[in-house]
Task: structure prediction
Amino acid sequence: MNKRKIINDPVFGFLSIPNDTIYDVLQHPYLQRLTRIRQLGLSYMVYPGAMHSRFLHSIGAMHLMQDAINVLRSKNVDISDKESTAAQIAILLHDIGHAPFSHVLEHTLVDGITHEDISLRMMEQIRKDLHQEQEDSAISTAIAIFKNEYHKHFLHQLISSQLDVDRLDYLCRDSFFCGVTEGSVASARILKMLCVVDDKLVVEAKGIYSIEKFLIARRLMYWQVYLHKTSVAAEQLLIKILQRAKQQAAAGKELFCSPALRFFLYQHINAACLDQSEEVLRQYSLLDDSDIMSAIKTWQSSDDRVLSTLSQAFIERRLFKSQRLQAPLNEAERQELKNKYAKAFNVSVEDARYFFVEHTSSSSTYSDKDEAIDILLNDGSIHDIAEVSELLNWDALTRRPEKLYLFYYK
Result:
């Protein structure tokens, strides 16, 4: 069987699957699950074109990894074929542990388990399923690169840093599908400017303007797309629905849901459960967006007033309204809201808390706590982008603005 395939990608054109190992990873059910999970969660409720999957993002990031490795090799950076394959596998699998609708399930159905934890467990299971448990196998090397335990640190930087192929792909891809041109970045130009000095990624001086544009694009995409108030309102509504469903399940109420969703609704699943039982990972791997959507569609007719009201609002896109707050609500204001909803829906004051939530959105363009984006100047010296940029300054780059909202049912 010929496993060297060509994939037509709307953003980067034709992408290639370079060898059998990567093809086998792509065909694994864990990775195919990402075809059923939207990359941007509920952003389609604001940008209807944002229907692309996490799978598409993963193969786009793999393509950029191929380009990055080719550029570095052309500059005499030593990267073996096995390391190249491992780096591509690591970026393919970097998002494999994401739950349906992005981070929503991390806040509701599981306790203390992050998608990074799940990603690592899934990588280890894929290694076992593909019989690549040898320490020097491509998948073992990919896991070491992912965990930053491989001796070539710059390979980890290509996967997870402030200038990685993950960010380069999602900015290009998300801006394309949302139609937000401000988010587009010159990914090809940036990759051409990469080099390695003392085992660290650096950007040649002539690429500084592309990096400035990259940072500005990232800031705009966060506030215009990822943290758009209506997208956040939709996410908060979904969280409240799942929290109510979880509460009803704990009370012994029978709810319609798929077997995989039932596993998490009717049990308290935490990090210890993940360590103790393989069943947690298996059930998690069966969850995708359709499990959540089919349940909510059915919950519209639930005999629980809170669950049915919120579920119907979600399906009909009557999302929480938003109000900017200058300060958190005081206890009297919260109690007033609870009394209002308790009276309107004939529910208890305790149950009225599902109809509103306070939430803070925040994002920084650049972090002074993470590894810097280093610029290699013509004199051979290396400096943080924040030190040499004429367009951006340190305060503007690292400042983390916050927006406090009240989201409420109306």
Remarks:
- The chain is about 50% helix and 10% strand.
